[in-house]
Amino acid sequence: MHLNTYDKNMKDKYQIDSVDKQILNFLIENTRMPFTEIAKKMNVSAGTIHVRVKKMEDAGIIQGTTLQVDYSRMGYDFIAYVGILLTKSNKTSMVMKKLREIPNVTVASVISGKYNIFCKIRAKDTSDARDVIYKIDDIEEVLRTESMISLQEEINDKTRLLNDIFK
What pTM did the predictor assign? Predict the structure, then answer.
């Protein structure tokens, strides 16, 4: 059996149970929480936590760990959303490759509707944001952009959906 076939079968078959949900809740709250601490809180062995996490990683449920950074504390508190209209839809991959080269583009999604791509950018101020948007405008095959300034980010919480799924 090929590894890819195993991976696909594992992803299709793995069912999360209440123990897995508890583990995920702890890791969502603090990705750096030691397995021994999770084990103590759940009254199980650290080995159990390790095995369960490994199975969820193998199944593709857990994909690495992330670090949450407060960009505003580092001077990047200006957020804007940029809709990008391309000359042709088949140029999307090329434009996405170029967007990856602009560090201020923190999120980029291929979408349907008025634009081909929708981005979230972070900048120090309006001048910095203008420079980032000009870089986007300069990408070959970008026909035009439209920017929307975020006045205040209210919801940015990865746990909300998971908590609802686990109910």
Answer: 0.72
Strand 78-86 versus strand 117-123 pairing type: antiparallel
Q: Where are the alpha helices (DSSP H) in the chain?
A: 3-13, 18-29, 35-42, 46-58, 92-99, 126-137, 159-165
To the nearest 5 percent, what fractions of the chain are helix, strand and coil? 45, 20, 35
pLDDT in tens, 129-150: 999 999 999 999 999 999 999 9
Q: For residue range 51-91, list pLDDT tens digits in order.
A: 999 999 999 998 877 777 888 899 999 999 999 999 999 99
Lay out the sheet containing 117-123: strands in order across: 105-110, 117-123, 78-86, 142-150
CA distance 123 to 77: 7
Amino acid identity, residue 147?
Answer: S
Q: How many CB atoms lie within 10 A of CB 12?
A: 9
Phi, psi of 83, deg, nearest 5: -90, 135
Tokens 């199975």, residue located: 55
